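Entry 14. Structure prediction run on the chain below.
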Amino acid sequence: MGNTVLRSDLEDRLRGAVKGSVQFDAMSRGRYATDASIYQIMPKGVVVPRDIEDVIVTMDIARDQGAAITPRGGGTSQCGQTINQSVILDLSKHVNRIISIDPERREAVVEPGVVLDELNRALKPYGLWYPVDVSTASRATIGGMTANNSCGARSIRYGMSRDNVIAIDAILADGSRARFGETDPERLGNGPVDALIRDMLALGDREADEIALRTPDVPRNVGGYNIDALVAERPNLATLLVGSEGTLAFSEAIKLKLWPLPGQKVLGMCHFPSFYAAMDATQHLVTLGPAAVELFDRNIIELAREIPIFRPVLEEFVRGEPQALLMVEFAEDEMDENLRRLKRLDQMMGDLGYPDAVVEAIDPAFQSRILEVRKQGLNIMMSMKDAAKPVSFIEDCCVNLPDLAEFTAQQEEVFARHGTRATFYAQASVGTLHVRPVLNLKQDTDVKAMRAIAEETFELVAKYKGAHSGEH
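Output returned:
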């Protein structure tokens, strides 16, 4: 057949109907077969829609051809949510309008391909921001963050995506459109969407006890559907779509809750002689009302010191050879209150047995240098020079803060049993750490160890009544 390429009916129909780009060649499919995770699945093809009408046409053709659809934003997923044996819809290039901003109501409506940093740049003149501040903000899209129920460093203050999504205009699998938001069961009509919502609320009524029994009572949980939304006093069906990874509907427009930009802030870099001590102290430090409590473990500190661009910054805020740091951020409206809390932080550290263990960062430029180290945590971890690298597969288990020290200590025992160690960083404030065992996935022994570590870790999660996924 020479260089002849057989095109499928699916590809031909898409090319004839879609205004945007249709890519079924091997190179394009290979580019979309991966994301920021360790997983790889080759898609059927890729569509880069020009607008929502292209999305609808693609969905119609795919439905007729029996093909699945996978919406995709920036590809920052840590667990392979953006890859599939399907038609990938890349929304990041064109379906990325900010539809409206209402400063008085502190609301914005956006298309799913809007990048978080771009949205916050548009909101800044109004003194507002969308505070689900993930570290990949320069490329993560609101659609992906909503589908993932993303959280960010300051969820202790602002909540998760589910707490900040007001409503979603959605396209269902059959092509029908519906708005999902706060629902008054007494005002539902007789249309098909009303019937669907009525059925979902009836499911919540029927299974309320089981939902209460099975939903982990932890600060963050993104595992499975948010079915607890069905039993809320004022049910919001948009909350059910949040975290559903696009499996329930396509989000055409997302209405977001906005917050006033924080004013001045201060940081306290708390030094600890052991990782366990840092984890145990977290439950006490959060009582001071911080906006964030972020972990830097010994691995991050040592690796950052080996990188010339970060070494001078480490010398500014790391004293001696701590085994862990907790970065405590206060961001109240009044600077005097921030300073008062920073002083109380120093006192509390002393009460916990760690006097003179806080390096204060009051100067904004100094804070920015520290925060950049935190933001680059993943890149710093991946700078390990060995063939074995930190691998993301159990990285965001969540437990309640009183259990965090024992849980992480027992995690370390699991890693040791399998001949490895792990890096730990990020959101200690809500009992969710980014935990990455160091493995070489080119070796069969480490691939087997990966599975065993996952199974044993999830047994620990169940023991502590936690969530197997607190963010990703």
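The two ends are 45 Å apart (CA to CA).
Filed with the rest of this week's runs.
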